[in-house]
Design brief:
It is globular and about 55 Å long. It is 35% helix and 21% strand. It is of the alpha/beta class and 285 residues long. It has one domain: Rossmann fold.
């Protein structure tokens, strides 16, 4: 049985009798499911094509949010509007987008909880059993922004057969363990500390570092696309360039773009057509 789906920003709330009615054209829906890895309910969002529910099964892109964000970033940061525009122009084949709440976990298994397992073990089978999506890695992609990009790249290298393609914007790639002396802010250091220890344990950091995983990865990896802003205020352009250099040296196919822009959603929105187009080209039947 399909879960009850409740539209978000498109919901028309009728004050009479306190009843909320979702219009037929609603495409973005919120829900929650029980994660065995976290042992609690976890909220998620799905962005569905307009023809969803007519018997077709669709490829799916799982999109991981950044630090200090949550699963609702897809709507709140107006990325759903970008996707709707692309769909209206018929520039993309139809697919489903899924986001999930990862808090400030960096989507790793740590004392905060088993957030990597949330993505790799819990979310995928739930979506494939409750929504009309095509099963199997060949129809599945992973994407992420900043912290979520960090996680998406690590998962791509750690589980190369789980997704057909991975794309990231402004992935949080650092060439050394973060510290206040290296420029990390107070709030960032607190977030790092909750996951990697206070002070940060270099072994824990290395165990989750996508740059370390890239040195160990063997082809074939999922199709890879990543970009970063030339003016990224956190200096992440250097880490993304370092990943590009590692992959080139090791002969691992990928696409990399260093584009004008800072760290933020203006940069993400400007590149979403390219990243979604790349992912769609890898997972369409």
């Amino acid at each position: 049985m399909k879960p009850r789906r409740i539209a978000s920003c498109a919901v028309l709330c009728a004050t009479l009798s306190g009843l909320c009615v979702a219009p037929a054209a609603a495409e973005v829906h919120h829900g929650s499911f029980v994660s065995a890895s976290l042992e609690r309910d976890v909220p998620y969002l799905v962005d569905l094509p307009s023809a969803y529910g007519e018997g077709t099964r669709y490829p799916v892109i799982y999109f991981l949010h950044g630090l200090f964000e949550d699963y609702d970033f897809w709507e709140r940061r107006e990325l759903t509007a970008v996707l709707r525009e692309l769909r209206s122009r018929r520039d993309l084949a139809d697919f489903v987008v899924v986001t999930v709440s990862g808090k400030n976990s960096f989507f790793v298994n740590s004392s905060m909880g088993r957030y990597e397992d949330l993505v790799t073990l819990d979310l995928i089978p739930y979506i494939e059993s409750h929504y009309d999506v095509l099963p199997g890695a060949e129809h599945r992609a992973l994407a992420g922004i900043s912290m979520g990009g960090y996680a998406a790249l690590r998962i791509a290298f750690e589980y190369p057969k789980l997704f057909a393609a991975v794309a990231t914007h402004s992935a949080m790639l650092l060439q050394q363990v973060p510290s206040a002396a290296a420029g990390a802010g107070e709030w960032h250091m607190r977030a790092f500390g909750r996951v990697f220890g206070e002070p940060i344990d270099p072994k824990s950091w290395a165990a989750a570092d996508p740059l370390v995983w890239a040195e160990q990865a063997d082809a074939p990896t999922p199709g890879l696309y990543f970009d970063c802003g030339e003016q990224d205020r956190y200096g992440l352009a250097r880490g993304n360039q370092a990943l590009h250099a590692i992959l080139e040296r090791r002969g691992i196919p990928h696409e990399f773009a260093l584009r004008p822009g800072d760290h933020g959603y203006e940069f993400v929105r400007s590149g979403l057509e390219r990243s979604l187009g790349f992912l769609a080209s890898q997972i369409m039947p």
